Amino acid sequence: MDGKKGKGLEGMPRKMLKLFSMLGGLEEKGRNSGPQLVAPKGPDGQTRHVVGIDEKLVPREEANGVVGKVVRIVGGRHVGLKGKVVSKLGDDSKSSSTVVLKLLRSGEEFTVGEDEVAELGSVKEENYLRKLQEAKVRGSKDDRRHDERRDSWSCWGSGKKDEGIADRRNNKKRNREGERGSETKHDNGELHRREKERSEPVSWLTSHIRVRIVSKDYRGGKLYLKKGEIVDVVGPKTCDISIDESRELIQGVKQDILETAIPRRGGPVLVLYGKHKGVFGNLVERDMEKETGVVHDADGHALLNVRLEQIAEYLGDPSYIGY
C-alpha cells in the first residue's frame, strides 16, 4: 500500500485513464505546467470525449488546431465560400466557440461559429456538398415544372384569346393614329431609342446577381443553361461565376454568353441598367410573353416598369448596394 502512494495518475490502469478523459481531460497531479491531454477530434471534425483502446490522447491545442487551415463555410451568410482560419475565440470546451475567418477571394474577415465551418475533405464537408447538390437538383426540377406549367397555360390562353385581343388593339391603334399624330411620333422616337439601346451592348455585369450560361459551345456545352452567381467582376464585360449545382468557380466568363436569371414573383431583384439602374426591390409581376416586369422599389416603395433583361435576381446582402 505504501509503495503505491504518491504515484498519482501515472499508476492508474489504462481503463481508468480512459474514464478520466471522459470527465474532461487528463492532467497530471502535482504539475503546474504541461499540455492538457484530450481525445483527438473525429474524422467529421467534431469534438470527442472518449478514445479507443489503441488510440492515444493528444494535447488540447493539437486536437483543436484549426488555426491556419483552409475551411469551407457550411452555414450562415457566406455559406459555400472558402476561407482561412486566422484565430480562434472562446473556450474549446464550450460549443459556442467561434473562429475569425478570412475569405480567400475578397480578403474579408469576420467571425463565424466553429460549427459552421468544415475542414476541406472532411466528412462534414462531404455531407454539406451532398445535401447542397440534392437541394439544387430538387430546385431545378421545381423550376422546370413551374416554367412548363406557365408556358403550357400561356400557349393555351393565347390560342383562345389573343386573336380577339389583337383585333381590339389594332382598332384602337388605328383610331389614335388620325387624332394623335404628335403622340405617335413620340412613341416612334421612344421605340427607336429602345431599339438603339438593344443593338448597342451595355455592360451590366454586377457582383452577387444570378445569371445563366446560354452558349452551347462554351466548354463543350457542359455548362449550357447552368445558373450561377457572379462572385467577381474582373472587367467591363468579364466576370467570375460560381456554378449553383457544383459550386465550381468559372473564371473569365464573357458577358455575351450570359443572360440574367429572373426570380419568381416576390424574389429580390436589382435593376442593372437603364433609367432605374441601381434600384433594389422585389419582383411584383412578370410577363414572359411581353418580356416586361414590375419592381417594387425597396427604398421609395414605388412600382417601376422594367424590361426583364434589365433586371436579375440579387443574392447578396442589400447593404452591399446601399440598402
Please explain how this structure is put together.
This protein is an alpha+beta fold and 323 residues long. Among the domains are: 47-122, SH3 type barrels, CATH 2.30.30; 202-261, SH3 type barrels, CATH 2.30.30.140; 262-322, SH3 type barrels (Roll), CATH 2.30.30. The protein contains 4 helices and 17 strands. It has helices at 14-22, 60-63, 123-179, 181-199, and strands at 37-38, 58-59, 70-73, 82-89, 98-103, 109-113, 117-119, 210-213, 227-235, 238-243, 249-254, 258-260, 268-271, 280-287, 292-297, 303-307, 311-313. The strands form 4 sheets. The protein has a 5-stranded antiparallel beta sheet with strand order 6-5-4-3-7. It has a 5-stranded antiparallel beta sheet with strand order 11-10-9-8-12, with no helix packed on it. A hairpin with a 2-residue loop joins strand 9 and strand 10 (238-243). It is elongated, with a radius of gyration of 30 Å. 15% of the residues are buried.
Q: Give the low-confidence spans.
A: 3-7, 23-33
* CATH topology annotation of the domain at 47-122: SH3 type barrels
- Topology pattern, helix = H, strand = E: HEEHEEEEEHHEEEEEEEEEE
Helix content: 25-40%
Which CATH class of the domain at 47-122 is shown? Mainly Beta
- Proportion of strand residues: 25-35%
Helical segment tally? 4
Give Rg in angstroms: 30 Å
Please tell me what the overall shape is. Answer: elongated
Roughly what is the average pLDDT, rounded to an integer?
76
Task: Tell me the total number of β-strands.
Answer: 17
* Helical/strand content category: alpha+beta
Domain KOW: 64-91, 262-289
Biased composition (Basic and acidic residues): 135-152, 159-169, 176-199
GO cellular component, one term: spliceosomal complex
Region (Disordered): 28-48, 135-199
